[in-house]
Write a structure and sequence with these properties.
The complex is a heterodimer. In chain A, 34% of the residues lie in helices and 25% in strands. Chain A has helices at residues 36-42, 47-54, 113-116, 120-130, 145-154, 156-160, 167-171, 189-195, 220-226, 242-259, 280-315, 317-321, 391-395, 410-416, 419-428, 438-443, 452-461, and strands spanning 9-12, 15-18, 30-33, 64-74, 76-85, 90-91, 103-112, 208-217, 232-239, 275-276, 324-330, 332-339, 342-349, 352-353, 372-375, 383-388, 399-400, 432-434, 465-478. In chain A, strands 7, 8, 9, 11, 15, 16, 18 and 19 form an 8-stranded mixed beta sheet that branches. The longest helix of chain A is centred in the middle third of the chain and has 36 residues, at 280-315. Chain A starts with 8 loop residues before the first strand and ends with a strand. Chain B is of the alpha+beta class. Chain B contains 2 helices and 8 strands. In chain B, strands 1, 2, 6, 7 and 8 form a 5-stranded antiparallel beta sheet that branches. In chain B, a hairpin with a 2-residue loop joins strand 7 and strand 8 (122-130). In chain B, helix 1 (21-36) packs parallel to helix 2. The longest helix of chain B has 19 residues, at 56-74. Classes of the chains: A alpha+beta, B alpha+beta.
């Protein structure tokens, strides 16, 4: 089904609704945070139909929500948020996605762009050598069974035993780098096989490591609390749970696809396969998902370690030691959170938790200013640092956007530009590019994404998060 | 026989058509090859695959998932079907390919819109890949 603006009711400056009566199987309305221009882009694919499908899930409460970076995915749209009431509301592995706990981690260096001078290109080159990228490649860490179990159960903290990361890194990670309830026995042998040699690897697709400079500060006090200042260098890491997470999702979509009839669940899209969170299938998935999420936290920690090693080789050991982690946030995860006296299972698929100041779930160092949120732009455009705001708890289950959001298919992007031409364009803008695949580079062209500034404007106007700083790219290592 | 990639904002959406069900599965391999080919070297190698699924659509998903997994774990890019037999809900196949440097990751084969059906003299398939 295709939509036009007239199918939606405008609820406010940045909020639109497809009413619950629009389709007989919807249990709650579907709501989109967007301005008029972003809404036009959103209407160009099937993302709103997918959001309506999410609104049919058993146990879903309040509304199926879409952030302004929403685009068509499978099952859930990317940028989709849905909460189901426990104990009997469903958990849907497709509502988390294949790349469980895909997320971003921001590091800040104790140097300014002036101080690094001509060493930008050597540093980006060294980052590309230090961090395995591309399809399925092995990484710096090869784990035996016990080591893998440790990461699956304990996440980031497990890597401290290998001198990878610091206590402060772990503290400055969403959920302390470890989701509770992880049970390695819920993870299949095939998933373990896929993950065994991938800890510390970037992967492919839209994953990247980017060297950036703080180009603008919107909220000086919060920026200072995050350790950011105008001109300072940052490194943004975007990766997830690699093949291990992909296989966990595959395994449990299949399990729930087979089991759902037994629970009397009818769905408009088979990829939404789900089961009550309290069921044996639901509990097993939550245990396996926690393992994959912990693996992803560990993966980004290992990549951050490789970044520090590269920094040490190019800029010196003292600079590496003083390179600090701002925070690490998940984009694809389901979590049990409490809203309005209800225990809810909040699915975030391409969306970021954005808890406000005062939340006990964010590090003490940030409790006065709110949780850091990182919104990567597309290659060649700015990324943003935001901070969670109180309205997120009232309007979006404590959630905000996760990126610019695709606006064009990969095929469409490749038709418009070759990887070689894009590489030249980016380098002409002064951005150092390292990417093993010209095809992969072309697919991530900046014009294939929505305008990230407009996306963050919407979440700021909606009161979900406020702008703290803008980060401009200096160099990118693409998976 | 044909395959084509449809416009999909986030992922890769694939439509298949072939005169037989076996040929449909061979077309799916050809489409995946377009995504994963790159830098293959050395002598051709063969792999035997035996799969079973609850329905034909899931069998197509499993087929693509197995081929994608060979690329991820062994850097083995399947280039052609040597033999392929479908028996009820089981598939037995031998594929030939070479080791290379597959540039494009297929993370998973989704169930979204997954479909295998016969229309007149043709077999049609539809699948969305997470990339």
């Amino acid at each position: 089904m295709s939509f036009s603006t007239s199918d939606l009711t405008r609820l406010g400056d940045t909020l639109w609704e497809i009413p619950v009566g629009a389709r007989a199987d919807m249990r709650v309305p579907a709501r989109v945070f967007a301005d008029a221009e972003l809404l036009e882009a959103i209407l160009g694919d099937r993302s709103l139909e997918q959001l309506q499908n999410v609104a049919t899930l058993p146990g879903v409460v309040d509304a199926a929500l879409a952030m302004p970076d929403i685009h068509q995915g499978y099952g859930f749209p990317v940028g989709g948020v849905a909460a189901t009431e426990l104990p009997d509301g469903v958990i849907s592995p497709g509502g988390v996605g294949y790349d469980i706990n895909c997320g971003v981690r921001l590091l800040v260096l104790p140097l300014t762009v002036e101080e690094i001078g001509a060493r930008v290109e050597p540093l980006v080159h060294e980052l590309s050598r230090a961090i395995p990228a591309g399809m399925g490649r092995g990484g710096a860490l090869e784990l035996d069974d016990a080591g893998l179990n440790g990461v699956l159960q304990n996440g980031s903290r497990e890597l401290l035993q290998l001198a990878i990361g610091t206590d402060e890194d772990v503290e400055r990670t969403e959920s302390g780098g470890c989701l509770p309830g992880a049970d390695p026995a819920a993870v299949s042998e095939r998933a373990r096989l896929r993950g065994r040699r991938q800890l510390g690897t970037l992967g492919s697709g839209n994953h990247f490591v980017e060297l950036q400079v703080v180009a603008r500060v919107d909220d000086p006090a919060t920026a200072e609390a995050f350790g950011l200042a105008l001109g300072r260098l940052t490194v943004l890491i975007h990766s997830g749970s690699r093949g291990l997470g992909h296989q966990v999702c595959t395994d449990y979509v299949r399990l729930m696809d087979a089991a759902r009839e037994g629970y009397g669940i009818q769905l408009p899209d088979r990829q939404l396969a789900c089961a009550p969170a309290s069921s044996p299938e639901g509990r097993a998935y939550l245990s396996a998902m926690a393992c994959a999420a912990n693996f992803a936290f560990g993966n980004r920690q290992a990549i951050a370690h490789a970044v520090r090693e590269a920094v040490a080789r190019v800029l010196g050991r003292d600079v590496a030691r003083a390179t600090r982690q701002v925070y690490d946030v998940a984009h694809n995860v389901a979590k049990v959170e409490r809203y309005g006296g209800r225990d809810l299972c909040v699915h975030r698929k391409g969306a970021t938790r954005a808890f406000p100041a005062g939340s006990p779930d964010i590090p003490e160092a940030y409790r006065a200013v709110g949780q850091p949120v990182f919104v990567p732009g597309s290659m060649g455009t700015a990324s943003y640092v935001l901070a969670g705001e109180p309205a997120s708890l009232e309007r979006s289950f404590g959630t905000t956007c996760h990126g610019a959001g695709r606006a064009m298919s990969r095929t469409g992007a490749r038709k418009r530009i070759s990887g070689a031409d894009l590489r030249r364009q980016l380098e002409a803008q002064g951005i150092v590019v390292r990417c093993p695949s010209n095809r992969g580079l072309a697919e991530e062209a900046p014009f294939a994404y929505k305008d990230v500034e407009r996306v963050v404007d919407v979440v700021a106007r909606a009161g979900l998060a406020r702008k703290v700083a803008q980060l401009r790219p200096l160099g990118v290592v693409k998976g | 026989m044909t395959y084509r990639f449809l416009e999909h904002t986030g992922e890769v959406e694939l439509e298949l058509e072939a005169p037989s069900e076996e040929a449909l599965f061979a077309e799916a391999l050809a489409a995946l090859l377009e995504l994963t080919a790159g830098g293959e070297t050395g002598e051709p190698e063969r792999r035997d695959l035996v799969l079973a699924a609850a329905d034909r659509s899931l069998l197509l998903a499993d087929w693509l998932a197995e081929l994608a997994l060979l690329a991820e774990l062994e850097q083995f890019v399947a280039e052609r079907v040597v033999t392929l037999e479908l028996d009820d809900l089981r598939l037995s196949a031998t594929v030939e390919g070479r080791r290379g440097e597959p540039p494009h990751l297929v993370k998973a084969v989704t169930l979204s819109g997954l479909n295998v059906r016969q229309e007149g003299e043709s077999w049609r398939g539809h699948v969305v890949l997470d990339v």
